[in-house]
Specification:
Largest sheet: 4 strands, mixed
Distance between the termini: 11 Å
Mean pLDDT: 84
Helix content: 55-70%
Shape: elongated
Radius of gyration: 36 Å
Strand order of the largest sheet: 1-2-7-8
Number of strands: 8
Order of helices and strands: EEHHHHEHHEHEEHEEHHHHHHH
Number of domains: 3
Low-confidence stretches: 356-367
Oligomer: single chain
């Protein structure tokens, strides 16, 4: 027998949860399964609502040319259709700009050249050569480009030692610190050692970062605020959709083949008055204890047993959570008659005197 779990009103078999759990790593297997079940239920609710609205998938491609799946396109189309957010005002953008000014600066850039002397087994010879080149060039002697082509063991030597335009952090720290201590056009008087070897350094250009004007920063700020507002609105939408569907019972059932309407037996018991009437002789035979409690409750209230059954179902649907629905689904799967077994499980959950009851005949039926 396939076991199922109900989440947000969606019935999900254990096999699908186990497969999806691989995409939700967590500290424990239980946490991974919970995350997987919620992810599957959320996607099912969104796809179900998209189908109700008659939406058709129109997959888009991202910047790398990858195309959306039909399901992803439907979810996107649904959220675009049902979620509206107010665009951030200039005042809101200005507040972000003023509060986070450091984030809206052009990066500090510099251009540099070097001559790399690798030790290649003779550390002292490499150091002496690097010191001689640095001393000569730092005194203003020309020829940095030619000496780089002649002596540098870096591929940049072929272009006269130029490292091009750099950002902070592009070079190893000791080299970068020594370079930024120089004036543009100056060659360091001492070579600098790194794990690559000895560097004779020249700072070619230094461009300090500067504040971007609000007019330039405003658009990325606006996009960021819109993205945050959209994410928050989408989260609220999903929560509301889950709450709405949870109150309806089991609205859909997932399987390897896809999604279908909720279990037929549950649909019958929620709306079919005749099912409640037919339950009575079945219940008298399969679970005399619950049947007796039902008669007692009906007598105390002065009503008909069938009406009490229907009232219990309405109460259950209005108040039951995922765990209670999972128990009803399990009872329906185990019973000889799924509809009656589900009704009996609801009565056990709602009759005041039946809490925790599990009679031998019920257990025998389940087996």
């Amino acid at each position: 027998m396939t076991r199922s779990l109900v989440v947000h009103g969606i019935e999900i078999p254990d096999s699908l949860i186990a497969k999806e759990a691989q995409n939700h790593p967590a500290p424990t297997a239980a946490a991974s399964r919970t995350a997987a079940a919620h992810a599957l239920a959320t996607k099912a609710l969104l796809l179900r609502r998209a189908a109700e609205r008659g939406l058709e998938p129109e997959p888009e491609r991202d910047e790398e040319g990858r195309e959306e799946t039909d399901e992803a396109a439907l979810v996107r189309a649904l959220l675009e259709a049902e979620i509206e957010i107010a665009p951030p005002s200039d005042e809101e953008c200005r507040r972000v700009y003023d509060a986070q000014r450091a984030q809206f600066r052009s990066p500090e850039l510099y251009e540099a050249s070097h001559i790399l002397i690798e030790p290649r087994g003779d550390e002292e010879a490499a150091r002496k050569l690097a010191r001689r080149l640095a001393a000569t060039l730092s005194r203003g002697a020309p020829g940095f480009t030619g000496l780089a082509r002649e002596h540098s063991h870096c591929p940049s030597g072929a272009t006269g030692g130029s490292l091009g335009q750099l950002r902070l952090g592009d070079l190893v720290r000791d080299v970068e610190v020594a370079l930024l201590a120089l004036e543009p056009g100056q060659v360091g008087p001492e070579p600098v050692r790194s794990r690559f070897g000895w560097h004779v350094l020249r700072l070619d250009r230094h461009i300090a970062g500067r504040d971007l004007p609000f007019e330039i920063a405003a658009e990325p700020i606006r996009l960021r605020l819109e993205s945050r507002a959209w994410t928050a609105a989408a989260a609220r939408y999903v929560v509301a959709l889950a709450e709405e569907n949870r109150g309806k019972g089991v609205v859909a059932t997932l399987s390897e083949e896809g999604m279908s309407d909720g279990s037929a037996c549950l649909g019958d018991l929620i709306g079919d008055g005749a099912a409640a009437q037919r339950l009575l002789p079945w219940l008298a035979d399969s679970d005399p204890y619950i049947f007796r409690l039902l008669l007692e409750e009906a007598s105390e209230r002065g009503g008909e047993p069938a009406e009490l059954v229907r009232g219990a179902v309405v109460q259950f649907v209005e108040r039951a959570g995922d765990e209670q629905w999972t128990q009803v689904i399990s009872a329906a799967r185990n019973g000889d008659d799924p509809a009656f077994a589900a009704l009996a499980a609801i009565l056990k959950a709602t009759l005041p005197k039946a809490g925790g009851h599990a009679c031998g005949s019920c257990e025998q039926k389940a087996a």
